[in-house]
Design a protein that fits this description.
heterodimer; A: 339 residues; alpha/beta; four-stranded mixed beta sheet; 10 helices; 47% helix; B: 99 residues; alpha+beta; four-stranded antiparallel beta sheet; 3 helices
């Protein structure tokens, strides 16, 4: 049913050279070999900033279906190597037909938002249980209840987006109350560029998660740009953004909060650039990626499966369910609902 | 896809003709499937198919009259079946790989 969860190698030390050595990937830094990794362990390779990849290794990655994704040093995604045979023309045809069918588009957008609302509500409820009620948390929970009631009545994409937007602003108004540490504060989302450590961290984790969702969609043969909830724009992975909505709060936000609340990330893991932009530094990125990868290995209960599944496979499972819905093999698309 | 932890050990008679060449080839093959933990000992985490592949490749290289090859399969994984003392350079390739 589900492909094996292969590991991803993240390389973020500046000046590293990656090359092919037989069937292994060799990681070199100034002529010193840091590590050899047999390729059969790898499903993905993610590099940040100034990291060189030899042409032979790139060819081999394309051949073996190892996805390569490039990020800037500050963690902005800017491109990836997709294997030469990717996608499935019949499935994509079904996807584009669905995009052209307003009722289907509305239905799927609603399902993604429903998943997001329920999983965000879970995060808020857990916060109330752990730290008690605050005004903002109570308001955010009420907004989520209202949004879940309003969602089935939404008659257009704009209405669905409006319902989602109301809940999201209440959620982020309460987000500062989820921080249990004195060292960081949160006064609203900002991005491109992030202007404080918490936003820098959120942006970075979202970028990691978006890459996972994009790869999962490519893996089942869907077009990651053909989104139902997010507006279509050339080069924007709108469907990956759609899929990510189910996981944002429950996976990305919780991971970020845990790292801050447990003081695994401190002020020294961030740097401020001229002009006020704030980014994770090399040490900080390592902490976040390690936590992100550990989280991918943990297992959770999926509402549709008896056996627990690794968190890292959730995007793949949802992508597959979406593909089956679009093909007509499933009457409904079931969003992932965390417990 | 079940994966097995295996231990590959070998002795290559380096005084025999082409011994050095065979030794180098065996090591190179093993490296492609796992990692060196001692001079002539490799640990690999492989699928059944990869195990068969590895074994076939090694048998093509070694001289059955002069060398010896042993492959141990650790049932239930290395964590349960291995006690390590002293120098340990093992990397678990399923752990987060962040360089």
């Amino acid at each position: 049913m589900v492909s094996e969860l292969l590991n991803t190698l993240y390389v973020q030390t500046q000046g590293v050279y990656l090359r092919l050595e037989g069937d292994t990937l060799r990681i070199q830094h100034e002529e010193i070999t840091l590590r050899n990794v047999p390729l059969h362990h790898l499903g993905g390779l993610v590099v940040f900033g100034n990291v060189l990849i030899s042409p032979f290794l790139l060819q081999r990655c394309a051949q073996d279906g190892i996805e390569v994704a490039w990020f800037t040093e500050s963690g902005r995604f800017f491109g990836r190597l997709a294997p030469p045979v990717s996608g499935n023309v019949l499935l994509r045809q079904a996807q584009y037909r669905a995009l052209d069918t307003p009722s289907t588009r509305l239905y799927l957008a609603g399902r993604f938002v429903e998943g997001k609302l329920r999983n965000s509500r879970l995060v808020l409820q857990r916060a109330v249980r752990e730290r008690g009620e605050t005004e903002a948390l109570v308001r955010a929970l009420a907004e989520h209840e209202a949004a879940l009631r309003a969602l089935p009545q939404a008659r257009s994409l704009d209405e669905v987006r409006g319902v989602e937007g109301n809940a999201a602003s209440a959620y982020f108004a309460a987000f500062g109350d989820l921080l249990l540490t004195e060292d960081f504060s949160f006064n609203g989302r900002n991005k491109r560029p992030p202007r404080d450590p918490v936003n820098a961290l959120l942006g970075f984790v979202y970028a990691l998660l978006l890459t996972q969702c994009t790869a999962a969609l490519e893996g089942v043969g869907l077009d990651p740009q053909g989104g139902f909830l997010h507006a279509l724009r050339p080069g924007r992975n709108a469907l990956a953004l759609d899929l990510m909505e189910e996981f944002r709060a429950w996976w990305a936000d919780r991971l970020a909060l845990t790292l801050l609340n447990r003081k695994q990330l401190t002020r020294k893991h961030f740097e401020e650039r001229p002009g006020g932009a704030v980014f994770l530094n090399e040490e900080g990125r390592k902490v976040v990626i390690t936590a992100f990868q550990n989280r991918r290995q943990e297992t959770v209960q999926h509402p549709l499966f008896k056996e627990p599944v690794p968190v890292g496979l959730l995007p793949h499972i949802q992508a597959r369910l979406l593909a089956r819905y679009l093909r007509g093999d499933l009457p409904q698309y079931p969003p992932f609902l965390a417990r | 896809m079940e994966r097995l932890d295996i231990l590959v050990t070998y002795d290559v008679n380096v005084t025999s003709e082409d011994g050095q060449t065979r030794l180098a080839r065996v090591a190179r093959i093993c490296k492609n499937y796992g990692q060196r933990v001692q001079m002539s000992v490799f640990e690999c985490r492989v699928t059944r198919a990869q195990l068969e592949e590895l074994e076939a490749k090694l048998l093509k290289v070694i001289d059955l009259d002069k060398d010896s090859l042993r492959i141990y399969i650790l049932p239930g994984g290395r964590e349960k079946n291995l006690r390590v003392h002293g120098q340990d350079r093992y990397t678990d390739f399923d752990d987060p790989l962040v360089i």
